[in-house]
Specification:
It is a single chain. This protein has 5 domains: about 110 residues, Nucleotidyltransferase, domain 5, CATH 3.30.420; about 55 residues, no CATH class; about 210 residues, Rossmann fold (3-Layer(aba) Sandwich); about 160 residues, P-loop containing nucleotide triphosphate hydrolases (Rossmann fold); about 90 residues, no CATH class. It has 27 helices and 27 strands. The protein is elongated and about 115 Å long. It holds the Pfam family DEAD.
C-alpha cells in the first residue's frame, strides 16, 4: 500500500449507513476501495476503523493509514449526497489534521457512488432521477431497465437512440419514462417542424387567361389571381396543350391545374376530359365536386369499376363531356372495347401510384393503352391536336426522371402552405386509443385564427379498428372506409365539412386525396393492412394535416408500439419503421414488373392493340419482358397469335392474374360453387 500512497491523486468519500465508502483514484483509475469509520473523541471526530474492500471481503488496516492517504492526495472530494451531518463530521475530522483546504463537496452520481465509483457530475451532464442526480451512463442503463420493465425491451436502433437523445436533452429520466407510459409531453413528443415555405412566383391574374367565356367567368367570380403552382403551369404552356407533371404539396391548388385545361378544351370542342383517380371513394367525391361546380357548363359521368357503378344511381355515359373514373374503371372500358369518344384531356391524379407493387403496373399499362386509343382516334384529331396529359402528385422522389419518362414538362412547387409539427410517442394498442381520445379532444377544443375548430384524421390499418377507435372517442367521430356504402360515406364527409365531427377514423388505403380539411393527423398504426407504409405513403398521409384557409398549422402524431408487428411476415417492428419513415428520403416513382404483372399487362395490350402490343409494352415506364410474357400467354392458351382467346378475354376483362385464372378454371372443372370462386377476387378489389 505504501507504493499506492505515493501515487494517490483523489480520495472520494460517500456516506454508507454509519460509515463512509472511500474510493482512492489515480489518473481517473480506481486503485482501491475502503470503508472508513469515525468516532467522537475529545479532539473531535477521528478515524476509528479503516478496512480495504475486495469484493465482499474486508481487510482491516490501521486507521492512521487513511490520514496518510489524505496527506498524500492532491484532492479530497465529499459526495453532496452525503447527509449534512456526515459532511460536517468529515470536514471536522479533516480540519483536525489541517487537511480541510483539500476537501470540497461535489455532486456525484449516486449509482456510481453506491458501486464504489467516483463519478462527478455537473449541471450540464447530470440527469435527474426522482429527487436525485445521476451520470449519463447510469441514466442510459436505468432507461434500458425501464424499457424492459415497461415491455419495451425490444426497442432498439433509432427508437432507442431517440429516447436517449431526449433524455440527455431534457436531463430528466422520469419524463422519458412517463413518455413510455403514454403521457403527452409536447417538448418530448415533438420530433420536428416542417416549416411553411413560399416560393416567389408572380401570380397570374385570372382576367388575363382568355379561356372559354363560361369557364372564364366562373373563375373570375372565384379568384382574382391564380395560386403559385397554377401560375407556374400556365406560364409553362398549360393552355397551349403541353403535357405536364405537377408535383406540389397537398392543398396548394394543383388539382385546379387539370380542371382548368380540361374544361377549357371541352368547352372549346377539343375533346372530352377524363379525370382519373385510384379509389372509388375519391372518384365519387370528385364526381360530386364536378357536378356542383361545373355541372351547369358540362355533362359529367362516372366510371368506377368493371361492373360497379356508384351507389348514387348515375349510370356511366361514355358520351359525357367529363368522365370521372378510377384507373381500373377506365381500363375496363378499354379492355372490353367500349368507345370512349374523342378524348381531349387526361388528368391522372395521384400518379405516384405507379410505384405500388400491386397496382402500379395497371396504371402504367392504362396510360399506354389510353395513349394508343387516343392516337387511333383519327376523327377530328387535326382539330384539337391530340389529347393533353396532366399528371398530379404531392409526393414524388424523382420528379425530373418521372417527368422525362412521361414526356411531360415538370411543374414542381415546393410551397408548404402551413407549418406541420410532427410528434412521436410510445404506447401499446390499448393505450393508443386513450392518447387518441385526449388528442382529439384537445384539438377540437382549439379554434384557429380563421375561426375553425381543430379536427382530426386518424389513420389505422383495418376497417375493424376504424370502428373500434371511433366508438371509444368521447367527442363525435365516425369510421370512414371503402366498406361503407356511398350514402354513409357522403354523410360522414358532410358532417366533417360542417364541423359536426371531431374526427374521422379511416384506413391508410383512403389516404390519398379524400378531402377532409383536418388540422391534425394521428397514425394509430404505420401499416396498410399487413404491409408497412412507404415513406411516400407516409408523407401523403401526414400532408392531410393543416389547410391554409382553415388552420394556422398542422399537427401530426405518430403513435408507436414498441416491438409491434401486425403480421409475422413483417420484418421490422413499428418503432423501427417509425424513424425510418420520419427520416427517410422519398422513394422514386417507377414501375417494376414481376412475371405475373408482365403477363397481365401484355395480355391487356394485345386485347386493346393487337399486333401493336409490343409498341404499347415498349412505351410503358417499367421494363416489361415482352417476349417472355408472350411465350407464357401462348403456353397458357390465353392468346392465339395476337388475339386473346375466349379464356384470355375473360381473364383480362376481370383483371385476373394467371394464378387466379388457373384457380377459377380448376374450380369450375371440379364443380365448385361460383360464389366460392369469386369471393376472394371481389374482396381483393374492394378498395378499387
Amino acid at each position: 500500500m505504501s507504493k499506492q500512497v505515493q501515487q494517490v491523486e483523489t480520495i472520494f468519500c460517500h456516506e454508507i449507513g454509519d460509515d463512509y465508502l472511500v474510493v482512492v483514484e489515480r489518473d481517473g483509475q480506481r486503485l482501491f476501495r475502503a470503508k472508513l469509520g469515525l468516532s467522537e473523541t475529545s479532539a473531535g471526530p477521528r478515524p476509528a476503523k479503516f478496512r480495504l474492500k475486495d469484493g465482499s471481503s474486508e481487510e482491516p488496516r490501521q486507521p492512521d493509514e487513511f490520514i496518510e492517504l489524505a496527506r498524500r492526495a492532491k484532492r479530497i472530494r465529499i459526495s453532496e449526497q452525503t447527509s449534512r451531518q456526515g459532511r460536517q463530521e468529515l470536514m471536522e475530522m479533516l480540519s483536525g489534521y489541517q487537511l480541510e483546504d483539500k476537501a470540497k463537496a461535489v455532486r456525484t452520481c449516486r449509482y456510481c457512488a453506491s458501486a464504489g465509483r467516483y463519478s462527478p457530475i455537473t449541471t450540464e451532464t447530470a440527469v435527474k432521477d426522482d429527487n436525485d442526480w445521476i451520470c449519463q451512463d447510469c441514466a442510459r442503463q436505468e432507461l434500458e431497465r425501464q424499457l424492459s420493465y415497461s415491455g419495451g425491451g425490444a426497442v432498439t436502433g433509432a427508437a432507442k437512440d431517440r429516447l436517449e437523445e431526449l433524455m440527455l436533452e431534457v436531463q430528466d429520466l422520469e419524463r422519458i419514462v412517463n413518455l413510455l407510459k403514454g403521457q403527452l409531453d409536447p417538448d418530448l413528443t415533438k420530433f420536428d417542424t416542417i416549416s411553411a415555405t413560399t416560393d416567389e412566383v408572380d401570380p397570374v391574374r385570372v382576367d388575363s387567361l382568355n379561356l372559354h367565356p363560361g369557364l372564364q367567368g366562373l373563375l373570375e367570380d372565384r379568384f382574382e389571381t391564380l395560386l403559385p403552382v397554377q401560375s407556374l403551369a400556365v406560364e409553362n404552356g398549360l393552355f397551349d396543350g403541353e403535357d405536364q407533371l405537377v408535383v406540389s404539396a397537398t392543398a396548394t391548388g394543383k388539382t385546379l391545374v387539370g380542371e382548368m385545361t380540361g374544361l377549357n378544351r371541352v368547352l372549346n370542342g377539343k375533346g372530352k376530359m377524363l379525370f382519373l383517380v385510384p379509389l372509388v371513394a375519391l372518384a365519387n367525391q370528385k364526381y360530386e365536386d364536378f357536378q356542383d361546380e361545373y355541372g351547369h357548363l358540362v355533362d359529367v359521368s362516372i366510371r368506377v369499376g368493371a361492373s360497379r357503378i356508384s351507389d348514387n344511381g348515375n349510370q356511366f355515359d361514355p358520351n359525357a363531356d367529363v368522365i370521372v373514373g378510377t384507373y381500373e374503371g377506365i381500363d375496363h372500358a378499354l379492355r372490353t372495347g367500349k368507345d370512349m369518344g374523342d378524348i381531349g384531356t387526361v388528368v391522372i391524379d395521384e400518379v405516384h401510384t405507379l410505384k405500388e407493387d400491386d397496382r402500379g403496373h395497371r396504371l402504367d399499362g392504362l396510360i399506354s393503352r389510353l395513349k394508343y386509343t387516343c392516337e387511333q382516334r383519327a376523327t377530328r384529331r387535326d382539330e384539337y391536336g391530340g389529347a393533353q396529359w396532366v399528371y398530379l402528385s404531392a409526393t414524388v422522389g424523382n420528379p425530373e426522371q418521372l417527368g422525362a419518362a412521361l414526356e411531360s414538362t415538370l411543374i414542381e412547387f415546393e410551397e408548404r402552405p402551413v407549418p406541420i409539427e410532427r410528434h412521436v410517442t410510445f404506447a401499446d394498442g390499448q393505450e393508443k386509443v386513450r392518447i387518441e381520445n385526449k388528442l382529439v379532444r384537445r384539438e377540437f377544443d382549439t379554434e384557429s385564427s380563421k375561426g375553425y375548430r381543430g379536427q382530426t384524421i386518424i389513420f389505422t390499418n383495418s376497417r375493424r379498428r376504424c370502428h373500434e377507435i371511433s366508438r371509444k372517442l368521447e367527442y363525435s367521430a365516425a369510421p370512414y372506409h371503402a366498406g361503407l356504402d356511398y350514402k354513409r360515406r357522403k354523410e360522414v364527409e358532410r358532417k366533417f365539412g360542417e364541423q359536426e365531427l371531431s374526427a374521422v377514423v379511416t384506413t391508410a388505403a383512403l389516404a390519398a386525396g379524400v378531402d377532409f380539411p383536418a388540422s391534425q393527423v394521428i397514425f394509430d398504426s404505420l401499416a396498410m393492412g399487413i404491409e408497412w407504409l412507404s415513406v411516400q405513403e407516409f408523407h401523403q398521409m401526414l400532408g392531410r394535416a393543416g389547410r391554409p384557409d382553415y388552420h394556422d398549422k398542422g399537427t401530426v402524431y405518430v403513435l408507436v408500439e414498441p416491438d409491434c408487428a401486425y403480421h409475422n411476415s413483417m420484418e421490422m417492428s413499428e418503432d423501427e419503421v417509425a424513424f425510418k419513415l420520419l427520416k427517410g428520403d422519398m422513394e422514386s416513382v417507377m414501375t417494376h414488373y414481376d412475371e405475373a404483372a408482365a403477363i397481365e399487362e401484355t395480355l391487356a395490350n394485345i386485347t386493346v392493340g393487337g399486333k401493336a402490343a409490343k409498341r404499347l409494352n415498349d412505351r410503358m415506364l417499367g421494363d416489361v419482358p415482352t417476349k417472355h410474357a408472350i411465350g407464357k400467354l401462348l403456353q397458357y392458351d390465353f392468346i392465339d397469335g395476337f388475339e386473346p382467346t375466349p379464356l384470355g378475354r375473360v381473364i383480362t376483362e376481370h383483371f385476373l392474374e394467371p394464378s387466379e385464372a388457373f384457380t377459377l378454371v380448376d374450380g369450375i372443372r371440379k364443380d365448385a360453387h361460383p360464389y366460392e370462386l369469386i369471393a376472394d377476387i371481389e374482396l381483393r378489389d374492394a378498395d378499387l
